[in-house]
Amino acid sequence: MIEDAPLLTIKKKFERPTKRQIASFHNAQTGHIVDAMGGLGAMDGKIKCVTDNSSICGVALTCQCGPADNLAAIAAIEMSMPGDIIIASTDNFESTAVMGDIMLGIAKNRGVKGFVTDGFVRDLVGINKVGIPCFSKGVIPNSPAKNGPGKVGTSIVIGGIHVNSGDIIVADLDGIVVVPNLSIAEVALNLKKVLRVEKETEDKVKLGIKELGLIKTIFDSGKIKEID
User: Fold this and answer.
1) 14 phi and psi, to 5 degrees?
2) In 56-177, which ranges are continuous DSSP H helix?
């Protein structure tokens, strides 16, 4: 006979990025970070900001919630450290909310920077009063159970992206980007290059340029076919 799963499976030890590493991504646009990672790294675009406050940067603390259950998310909040962002996978469950204003108020009191889920949330008016940025697939008033089983701190998949506790999360109105812990130094270096090129191009646009030169290069390549 297969034994019942534990109510919670918890991984407490994981490598956290340094304050300096996190600071490398403060105020960076998600699109620029994606460019620094080769054009990928963002969660499914259906996960959007549902609160007034829309910008966050911090450390991922993951949790895996069962259908219609948020025990793991509650445990993650009560295990959190200042600067964490709770990343709650529900396997895209949409019939009940996974989080509401009371627990997010507690999260804010603990120094949590934001909440991200591929499920739904509730109590949006209260969440906005709390002032914690919240990203989800939508809002629904149905409430979850707190029975488990669930996991905290383990590797999860959310929005089509693998996330590990200790990864850096950056989110804004465009979406949510995950910078893997093992790639932080490389991505931070690439980001500096991206920002430099972006600034140079923006300056040219302000001066009135009408093309980037890319299309002209293609036209001059001889690989264009004109038709009547």
Assistant:
1) -155, 155
2) 71-79, 101-109, 124-130
Residue 199 tokens, joined = 């600034």
Q: Give 85-104 as a DSSP string.
A: EEEEE-SS--SSEEE-HHHH
CA 198 from centroid of its chain's CA atoms = 23
Give the chain's length. Answer: 228
pLDDT tens string 30-81: 999 999 999 999 999 999 999 998 899 999 999 999 999 999 999 999 999 9
Tokens describing residue 190: 């690439």
Structure tokens at 206: 């302000």
Could you tell me if 14 and 166 are in contact, meaning their C-beta atoms sit under 8 angstroms apart?
Answer: yes
> Are the beta carbons of 159 and 85 closer than 8 angstroms?
no
Residue 76 and residue 88 in contact, taking contact as beta carbons nearer than 8 Å? yes
Question: Whose CA is closest to 75, among 127, 8, 163, 142?
Answer: 8
